[in-house]
Design brief:
mainly alpha; about 65% helix; 5 helices
Length: about 150
């Protein structure tokens, strides 16, 4: 986590530096083209900045700083290193119990088909969306109750 925090701070600093360089470069390259007698100093600066790139670089730097701050706070709240950060740890040290899954189940494929059918219905014709929702209801009920019927019933 400490390495991740450092990498995100590095990215935030890089994009912050690029924001300054990009904005200054735009100011210098368009300085003489926007000077007229009727414009004030601040109007010239406002016309010289290319706002889309400058704002995008600034917000990217802020996003990197936000993620770095969050990861640093999480690392501090854990009170220690994660197993994947310790060089002598095994793979099993960081492998929590995630639950019970049925690798033989076909219901996730039917759920994906129902989502695809509904999305195609949004793109092609609205009459297909209720069919996708109906397939979804059947698939979700089948997936939830697959352990209550048949060979794997409990």
């Amino acid at each position: 986590m400490r390495t991740n925090t450092g990498l995100w701070w590095l990215l935030a600093a890089f994009f912050g530096l690029m924001f300054v360089v990009y904005t200054a470069w735009n100011l210098l390259s368009h300085w003489d083209t926007n000077l007229t007698g009727s414009q004030s100093y601040w109007d010239t600066i406002t016309l010289s900045i290319e706002w889309v790139g400058s704002v995008a670089l600034l917000f990217t730097a802020l996003m990197g700083a936000l993620i770095a701050f969050y990861i640093g706070r999480v690392h501090h709240a854990q009170g220690g290193e994660l197993p994947e950060d310790i060089l002598t740890s095994d793979i099993d040290d960081g492998d929590p119990e995630l639950g019970e899954f049925s690798p033989w189940s076909w219901w996730p494929i039917v759920l994906a088909f129902s989502a695809a059918l509904a999305m195609i219905g949004l793109a092609v014709g609205a009459w297909m969306v209720p069919i996708g929702v109906g397939v979804f209801v059947v698939a979700i009920v089948g997936w939830v109750y697959e352990y209550y019927r048949g060979y794997f019933a409990r």
